[in-house]
């Protein structure tokens, strides 16, 4: 796929993130409560390249913090896997000692992407932009 797009066969940069998903009461030993999302279930951690192709994937209980889940994800990679990867982008949930651990373990540089100014309206810090979709009362 990468070769068809005119890219090198191996990715040099990737994006790491997680997503929580609700599970049913049946199945799977590893479930937990994600307090931020207010749901009981599992969390999937992914490392994807710039085109969105999955490089690594890991599923665990939803109560695992992002940094710990990302560490589990990276530990699933075999030695020598993703040899050209140099840079990993992540959100603010991956700050702290994870960056130095990632650099020391795999030699990958972690770049935490910050919110651009004026984009925090969702959290009540700025005025909500006009012209967006919203539910109309009856």
TrEMBL record:
Pfam families reported in the protein's UniProt record: DDE_Tnp_1
Domain of life from the UniProt record: Bacteria
GO BP term (any one): DNA transposition
An example molecular function term from Gene Ontology annotations: transposase activity
Segments for region (Disordered): 1-36
Domain Transposase IS4-like: 12-107
Coiled-coil residue spans: none
InterPro entries according to UniProt: Transposase_11 (IPR002559)
Protein name, UniProt field: Mobile element protein
Upper lineage: Bacteria, Pseudomonadati, Gemmatimonadota, Gemmatimonadia, Gemmatimonadales
């Amino acid at each position: 796929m990468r070769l068809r797009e005119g890219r090198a066969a191996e990715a040099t940069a990737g994006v790491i993130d997680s997503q929580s998903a609700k599970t049913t009461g049946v199945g799977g030993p590893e479930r937990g409560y994600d307090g931020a999302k207010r749901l009981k279930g599992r969390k999937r951690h992914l490392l994807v390249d710039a085109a969105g192709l999955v490089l690594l994937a890991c599923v665990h209980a939803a109560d695992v913090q992002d940094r710990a889940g990302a560490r589990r994800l990276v530990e699933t990679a075999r030695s020598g896997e993703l040899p050209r990867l140099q840079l990993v982008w992540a959100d603010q949930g991956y700050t702290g000692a994870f960056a130095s651990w990632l650099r020391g373990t795999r030699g990958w540089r972690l770049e935490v992407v910050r919110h651009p100014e004026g984009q925090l309206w969702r959290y009540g810090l700025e005025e909500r932009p006009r012209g967006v979709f919203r539910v109309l009362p009856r």
